[in-house]
TrEMBL record:
Transmembrane helix as UniProt keyword: yes
PANTHER family assigned to the protein according to its UniProt record, in alphabetical order: INNER MEMBRANE TRANSPORTER, S-ADENOSYLMETHIONINE_S-ADENOSYLHOMOCYSTEINE TRANSPORTER
Keywords for the protein's UniProt record, in alphabetical order: Cell membrane, Membrane, Transmembrane, Transmembrane helix
Organism, as annotated: Paenibacillus sedimenti
Topology in the lipid bilayer: Multi-pass membrane protein
Protein name, as recorded: DMT family transporter
Location of the protein in the cell: Cell membrane
Transmembrane regions listed in the UniProt entry: 12-30, 36-54, 66-83, 95-115, 122-140, 146-166, 187-206, 218-237, 249-266, 272-290
Residue span(s) of domain EamA: 7-139, 151-287
InterPro entries for the chain: AA-Vitamin_Transporters, EamA_dom, EmrE-like
Alphabetized Pfam families for the sequence: EamA
Family classification: Belongs to the EamA transporter family.
Presence of keyword Cell membrane: yes
Length: 309
């Protein structure tokens, strides 16, 4: 059991480490590709890779299971990324960054309401407040450039709610007992299927000749193979091993990884407020995770002690 949890934490960490660096690849690709083109190509590549790695067909044993896959594909692939991209066209990236960090809060609420398996704990909410404070410091770096844009910010909030729903659906899927690669591939299939109608709305161009540029090819492969096929598998495993709430807490680390990556790749400077923000964010994650563990360990100790009498 402990080995499974350790593997779950490692999977969540690997996922967030990669997701925290995807902004660089996306930023480079946006010079020649539209957001919807990047989205379609990365998930198409991810689907093909998963098919090549594990070509066995998924035999769904229950129609309700299939419906869950449909909802997961719609939420985790199509709606989330479309809403996030649309939000970025109406509001600032810093706004979207902070709002997206509310995912663990929504995940905790939805998990409590629909799965009844992870109780709401005060330590989680304390950690949430501390982490969000740190993320504010990282995102705005002491400047006064925060401007409310109702449409863009509401779209960002909707995206976080959709991802929280995806995490709950993933937790549900993990209880079905199917192979992780097969379930991830099925989710990608439905996500791409729902994405196809939107391609006509956003002026999608196939333009495969653009991949003759090695930089574009390497970056889209990184997004498709790493950020999509690998990360969705590791994230799904983390949710299965840790639960939707505990795995979602790792999302607090995304701004931290983004800042560190920016320093290494883009040579951006570390400021005092950013450093303080990183400390607060990591402290929030620690409080959310370790306090819950301590409480559970304490309860187990009491039970063991009580069983001796």
């Amino acid at each position: 059991m402990e080995n499974k949890k350790t593997a779950g934490h490692l999977s969540a960490l690997i996922t967030i480490l990669i997701w925290g660096t995807t902004f660089i690849s996306t930023k480079i690709l946006l010079k020649d590709f539209s957001p919807i083109e990047i989205l379609f190509f990365r998930f198409a590549i991810g689907f093909i890779a998963l098919m090549a790695v594990y070509p066995h067909r998924l035999k769904v044993t229950n129609k309700k299971h299939e419906l869950t896959f449909v909802c997961a594909g719609l939420c985790g692939v199509t709606l989330y990324y479309l809403l996030e991209n649309m939000a970025l066209t109406f509001t600032m990236a810093s706004n979207v960054g902070v709002i997206s960090s509310i995912v663990p809060f929504f995940t905790a609420i939805l998990t409590y309401l629909f799965l009844k398996e992870e109780p709401l704990r005060i330590s989680f909410f304390i950690g949430f407040v501390v982490a969000i404070t740190g993320i504010f410091l990282i995102s705005f770096n002491g400047t006064s450039n925060f401007h409310l844009n109702p449409l863009g910010d509401l779209l960002a909030v909707a995206a976080t709610l959709i991802w929280a729903a995806y995490s709950v659906l993933t937790r549900k899927i993990s209880s079905y007992g199917y192979h992780t690669i097969q379930t991830t591939r099925r989710v990608f299939f439905y996500g791409i299927l729902f994405m196809i109608p939107t391609l006509f709305l956003f002026d999608f161009q196939l333009g495969l000749e653009r991949f003759s540029n090695p930089v574009s090819l390497l970056n889209i492969l990184f997004l498709g193979l790493g950020a999509s096929s690998l990360c969705f598998m590791t994230w799904n495993y983390a949710v299965k091993a840790l639960g939707a709430v505990k795995s979602s807490v790792y999302i607090y680390m995304v701004p931290v990884i983004t800042v560190v990556t920016s320093m290494i790749v883009l040579h951006e400077q570390m400021t005092g407020l950013v450093a303080l923000g990183i400390i607060c964010t990591m402290a929030g994650l620690f409080i959310s995770e370790c306090k819950m563990n301590m409480k559970k360990k304490g309860m187990l100790a009491v039970r063991r002690h009580g069983s001796r009498f």
